[in-house]
């Protein structure tokens, strides 16, 4: 019977992994409704999970005498979570409530699109959109409602993103709003049985994992005591640099002064230097151009457009577009217009923007057009939102071309409409002193009228330092170089007891600590600039991944001296990804749904887990290159088995903290979103090696390391594949 149950468990798990991975691809091409009706919402899918749970419980009970209590609790926690999901599916009521200001409503629309009644009525008193200071970026959507009970009692409540209202078991979630902002859409959820059972399963899961990690007689602690210090190897590649001469523009000092003006950019107030860097980066693909700073490039286009329009500086990636324009890798602005000054891309724009796919030509047209439009916006003054103004009690920032109401003070209108023409005139007359006076006057104007939307001196200094020093580039180059050197040293030259080797080892440790402190400083700077932990997009999560890799390396190094090269290389590769231009490092306010304290916990746990799994992958890849019977491979096997425990704990914690957050924000703790599905696949795949009693092949080091090296594909798919190919609810993390 045990063999039968074991076979059922393995087969159901394997089938489940195939179904889950295939479903995410079908969803991309057939749609979410199709995959929900065909896979996730079907009886056979529920039976597949039931087979897995029943066979697992049977084997657990059959082997309970030889299994630690924490392990039993851990597996039972998953059973409780599945039971909670089943209760939610069978008993939960869901729907949508549309409210108009002042109109009581006691009916809602169910998932089946039939009307159902509430045991009370709900009235929208007021709907508000709250904004980040000085911007038009929403920070929250708030519905002030009253709930009228049959007893005559009226309960006031407020519903916003990440803040729900509860009445009689019904939970209200802010979903959407009418265009005229006089109506609000609320999601409803009544799950009396499923949520308590599911949350109890989460709590039991965290308790069991903690007990598993801390149990002095458990396998995790026994493995930790057996780990010593072996070594490993890789090759060395050195990066190169490129320098070129500088054409004329504003002096570096004058351009830097202009860069200290504050501007509304990316839905937040920032130094104009930040806008200039983004402008230059989008056009050129770099932070500078032919030796000029980004501020000089921006100022050149602003004050000398007639000269700069002939400068071949707009990067063209597509060879088809290069051939169409008759240029090389770089085009000038005038290359996009024919002899009659007609825009050469015009005939292709409608089709290019209608095509949401990856057609090569249409994608090239979109990329080129975006750069041309960026230059045009700059020339029109549409990028220069530098004039703060209090409008109806809310501070907004205006550009020189925005319409100014007649009710605005004459002096304000005069400054908005005349300041930049004054700068142009000063430059035409060669009066740079008057230009500096105009820039200084604009700064004073911003401080006097901008209120609390103006950045403090400390915030300005932090962002300018962050912009001025290429921290990420320096860190990834130094880390990769040191990592490859460290691999060579520890494998070829390191000898215990050698004074020279100890000295070199101390140098590597010192370099590691210094780079870790610098990276910590970068994270702190970005936190200061953005007013939040840097966990809101793909660039920032890779930054946090690098930080966690280095943190874990420092924690592990006392027992495993050779882990240092892993820390250098893995954090270096993560920062290299940050450096790649496909990821936009722009710091922006969080979407309202992300403004939750659970964001930091959820993302930190996930990225810490990915950091450990990346260490595991590199560890196994190195082990596969060494003689199977060597002492080093034995130590690497111990390391791999040990790190699996904290890695899976962090991954599990991140997934289920995310589920709690989703339940608070959307009223459902699991949506079968592609990223959720692939995170679950990753969890299931990495759980296999921990069950070597049921799966004897994992007792063999060669098989164990080959599996872990290959399993990292699921991490890459979860992070990169979903973000850039499958999409889904988590696309805001891109």
Please tell me about this protein's structure.
The chain has 734 residues and is an alpha+beta fold. The protein folds into four domains: 2-66; 93-190, no CATH class; 216-238 and 469-733, no CATH class; 252-460, no CATH class. It has helices at residues 2-30, 32-40, 43-62, 69-91, 194-214, 219-226, 252-259, 272-284, 294-303, 305-308, 319-325, 346-354, 360-380, 410-428, 432-449, 457-468, 471-493, 499-530, 538-556, 563-579, 597-623, 631-666, 674-687, 701-726; strands at 93-100, 105-110, 115-131, 138-148, 154-160, 165-167, 170-177, 183-190, 262-265, 268-271, 314-315, 330-331, 387-391, 394-398. Strands 5-4-3-2-1-8-7-6 form an eight-stranded antiparallel β-sheet, covered by helices on one side. A two-stranded antiparallel ribbon has the order 9-10. A two-stranded antiparallel sheet has the order 11-12. A hairpin with a 4-residue loop joins strand 1 and strand 2. Helix 19 packs antiparallel against helix 20 (563-579).
Cα-atom radius of gyration: 30 Å
- Number of distinct helices: 24
Q: Which geometry do the CA atoms define?
A: globular
- Rounded to the nearest angstrom, the distance between the terminal CA atoms is 48 Å
| β-strand amount | 5-15%
């Amino acid at each position: 019977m045990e063999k039968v149950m074991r076979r059922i468990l393995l087969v159901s798990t394997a089938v489940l992994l195939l179904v889950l991975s295939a479903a995410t691809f079908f969803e991309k091409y057939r749609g979410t409704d199709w995959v929900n009706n065909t896979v996730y919402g079907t009886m056979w899918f529920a039976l597949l999970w039931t087979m897995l749970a029943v066979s697992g419980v049977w084997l657990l009970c059959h082997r309970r005498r030889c299994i630690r209590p924490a392990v039993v609790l851990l597996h039972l926690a998953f059973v409780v979570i599945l039971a909670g999901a089943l209760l939610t599916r069978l008993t939960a009521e869901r729907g949508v409530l549309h409210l108009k200001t002042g109109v009581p409503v006691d009916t809602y629309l169910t998932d089946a699109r039939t009307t159902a009644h509430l045991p009370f009525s709900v009235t929208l008193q007021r709907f508000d959109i709250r904004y980040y200071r000085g911007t038009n970026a929403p920070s929250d959507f708030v519905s002030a409602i009253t709930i009228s009970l049959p007893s005559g009692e009226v309960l006031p409540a407020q519903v916003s993103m990440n803040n729900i209202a509860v009445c009689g078991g019904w939970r209200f979630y802010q979903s959407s709003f009418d265009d005229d902002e006089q109506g609000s859409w609320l999601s409803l959820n009544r799950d009396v049985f499923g949520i308590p059972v599911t949350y109890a399963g989460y709590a039991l899961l965290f308790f069991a994992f903690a007990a598993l990690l801390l149990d002095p007689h458990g396998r995790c602690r026994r493995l930790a005591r057996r780990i010593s210090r072996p070594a490993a190897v890789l090759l060395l590649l050195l990066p190169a640099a490129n320098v070129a001469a500088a054409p004329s523009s504003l002096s570096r000092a004058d351009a830097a002064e202009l860069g200290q003006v504050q501007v509304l950019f990316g839905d937040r107030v920032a130094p104009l230097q930040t806008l200039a860097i983004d402008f230059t980066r989008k056009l050129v693909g770099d932070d500078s151009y032919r030796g000029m700073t980004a501020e000089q490039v921006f100022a050149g286009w602003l004050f000398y457009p007639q000269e700069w329009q002939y400068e071949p500086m707009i990067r063209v990636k597509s060879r088809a577009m290069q051939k169409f324009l008759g240029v090389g890798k770089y085009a000038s602005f005038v290359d996009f217009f024919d002899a009659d000054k007609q825009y050469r891309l015009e005939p292709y724009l409608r089709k290019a923007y209608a095509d949401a796919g990856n057609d090569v030509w249409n994608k090239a047209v979109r990329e080129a057009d975006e750069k041309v439009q960026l230059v045009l916006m700059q020339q029109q003054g549409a990028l220069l939102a530098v004039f703060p103004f209090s409008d109806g009690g809310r501070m907004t920032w205006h550009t020189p071309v925005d319409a100014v109401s007649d009710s605005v003070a004459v002096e304000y209108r005069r400054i908005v409409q005349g300041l930049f023409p004054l700068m142009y005139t000063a430059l035409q007359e060669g009066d740079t002193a008057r230009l500096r006076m105009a820039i200084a006057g604009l700064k004073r104007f911003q401080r006097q009228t901008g209120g609390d939307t103006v950045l403090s001196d400390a915030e300005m200094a932090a962002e300018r330092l962050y912009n001025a020093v290429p921290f990420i580039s320096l860190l990834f180059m130094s880390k990769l170089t040191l990592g490859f050197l460290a691999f060579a040293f520890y494998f070829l030259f390191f000898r215990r007891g050698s004074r020279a080797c100890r000295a070199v080892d101390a140098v590597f440790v010192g370099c590691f600590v210094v780079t870790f402190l610098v990276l910590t400083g970068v994270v702190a700077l970005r936190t200061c600039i953005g007013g939040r932990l840097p966990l809101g997009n793909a660039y920032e999560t890779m930054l946090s991944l690098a930080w966690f890799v280095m943190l874990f390396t420092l924690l592990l190094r006392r027992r495993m001296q050779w882990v240092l090269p892993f820390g250098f290389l893995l954090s270096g590769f993560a920062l290299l990804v940050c450096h790649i231009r496909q990821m936009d490092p722009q710091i922006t306010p969080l979407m309202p749904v992300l403004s939750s304290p659970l964001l930091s916990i959820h993302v930190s746990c996930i990225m810490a887990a990915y950091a450990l799994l990346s260490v595991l992958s590199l560890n196994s890849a190195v082990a596969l290159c060494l003689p199977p019977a060597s002492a080093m491979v034995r130590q690497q096997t111990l390391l791999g088995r040990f790190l699996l425990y904290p890695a899976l704990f962090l991954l599990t914690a991140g997934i289920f903290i995310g589920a709690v957050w989703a339940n608070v924000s959307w009223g459902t703790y699991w949506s079968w979103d592609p990223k959720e599905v692939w995170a679950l696949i990753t969890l299931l795949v990495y759980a296999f090696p921990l069950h070597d009693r049921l799966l004897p092949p994992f007792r063999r080091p060669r098989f164990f390391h080959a599996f872990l090296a290959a399993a990292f594909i699921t991490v890459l798919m979860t992070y990169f594949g979903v973000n850039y190919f499958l999409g889904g609810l988590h696309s805001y993390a891109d």
